[in-house]
Amino acid sequence: MNPKVVHEKTSPQRECAPVVPLFKALAHPVRTAIVHRLVEGPADVSQLVELVEESQPLVSHHLKVLRDAHLVRINRVGRNSHYELIDEHVARIFMDAFNHAKEHDHDCKH
Question: What PANTHER family does the record point to (predicted)?
């Protein structure tokens, strides 16, 4: 072992930094509605457009943000593309946050 090698302690901010894009990606009502729907199972763009009542290009943009944050993926079958959550962690993170928010009203003082 090289005695000149100094092991730097990782700062808490640096250690937690990879989580920030995940929360940024979820910080929009359209994207949270999409993720909430995908907790139930895969959906195609037309289903998501109908759900959020926004234009297809806007929904596609939000899906790209979610893909870039590694929250959703595309499953292509022939000419059809279905979006799905990347794994069960995403569903649990979202549902924990969703249930927490529902349990606490705006007048909560803790």
Answer: ARSENICAL RESISTANCE OPERON REPRESSOR ARSR-RELATED, HTH-TYPE TRANSCRIPTIONAL REPRESSOR CZRA
In the chain, where does DSSP find H-type helix? Answer: 12-16, 20-25, 29-40, 45-52, 56-68, 88-103
By the 8 A CB rule, do 72 and 59 touch?
no
Predicted confidence pLDDT, tens digits, the chain (110 residues): 555 555 567 788 888 888 899 999 999 999 999 999 999 999 999 999 999 999 999 999 999 999 999 999 999 988 888 999 999 999 999 999 999 988 876 555 55
Whole-structure pTM value: 0.81
What is the rounded CA–CA span in Å between residue 32 and residue 20? 16
